[in-house]
Amino acid sequence: MRFHGKTAVVTGAASGIGEAVAQMLAANGVERIGLVDSAERVEAVARAVDAAAGRTVARPFRGDVCDPAFRIACFDSLCQEGSPPSFCVPAAGITRDGLAVKLDKGTGRAAIYPRETFQRVLDVNLTAPVYWALEMIARIAEDRHRRGLSRWEPTEPSEGAIVLIGSVSSRGNRGQVSYSASKAALAGVAATLSSEAIHYGVRCAVVHPGFTDTPMVRAMGPRILEEQVLPRTQLRRLIRPEEIAEAIGFLLANPAVSGPLWVDAGWQPAP
């Protein structure tokens, strides 16, 4: 699928993978990119994307990705300027690490991972990406109806593509019961949307990054990274966000590719 003249939506665009995806899309000729994040830095990222592209391409939107009204307003704004977005990469995510059950040997009482924390991680990492994806599919479905089109046919150009951001932690990772659950569920979402959204000419895939050089991963601390992460990767370094963005671009562009893509630098979890 060609990128030129298309509109994209990227959440989590103020840093890390989301920022790298925005730069990649602009470099490949996307006409407009909605950069979505709660951080003020999203506005600086938009200016940097425009500067690198040598044209005005980025539209910053600040707000909570979990807020349905904010999501709808972002799509309304982009759709008012032209056709509905063709690409959606909902990259916003959080971690709230902690053991699922932790025993206090002094008191003999076990603490369970907080339910409200678990729910917040699911809201940001699972529910929000699903609904940003569904919003794009719905806008495309409505646009096709206005144009008198029903079921998409392979003789037509593709209408769009979605790439969800999974993780190597979807296979399970100590201390990440909520994060692992949220990322593992995205594989089922991608498989379901792949069979449903193609009715409107929209594809859906999921990429599973390994440990990437982002603020979220750096927050783990240098000792954990050097002792527990880097020795278990073939590259023995963190993956660069640009490398993940290139993989996402591949999934967006190539209509013959389906299913999950592991971009994990040969990560091998501890036994």
Number of E-type strands: 9
Share of residues in helices: 40-55%
Classified in CATH, the superfamily is NAD(P)-binding Rossmann-like Domain
Rg (C-alpha, Å) = 19 Å
Strand fraction equals: 15-25%
Ends apart, CA distance between termini: 41 Å
Q: List unreliable stretches of 5+ residues.
A: none
Shape: globular
Describe this entry's structure for a reader.
- This protein has one domain (7-263): Rossmann fold, CATH 3.40.50.720.
- 43% of the residues lie in helices and 17% in strands.
- The chain has helices at residues 16-27, 41-53, 68-80, 115-146, 177-197, 215-218, 222-229, 241-253, and strands at residues 7-11, 32-37, 58-62, 87-90, 101-104, 109-112, 160-165, 202-209, 260-263.
- The chain has a 7-stranded parallel sheet, with helices on both faces. The protein has a two-stranded antiparallel sheet with strand order 5-6.
- Helix 5 (177-197) links the parallel strand 7 (160-165) and strand 8.
- Helix 1 (16-27) runs parallel beside helix 2 and helix 1 packs across helix 8.
- The longest helix has 32 residues, at 115-146.
- It starts with 6 loop residues before the first strand and ends in an 8-residue tail after the last strand.
Which features would summarize this protein structure in a list?
Rossmann fold; 8 helices; single chain; 271 residues
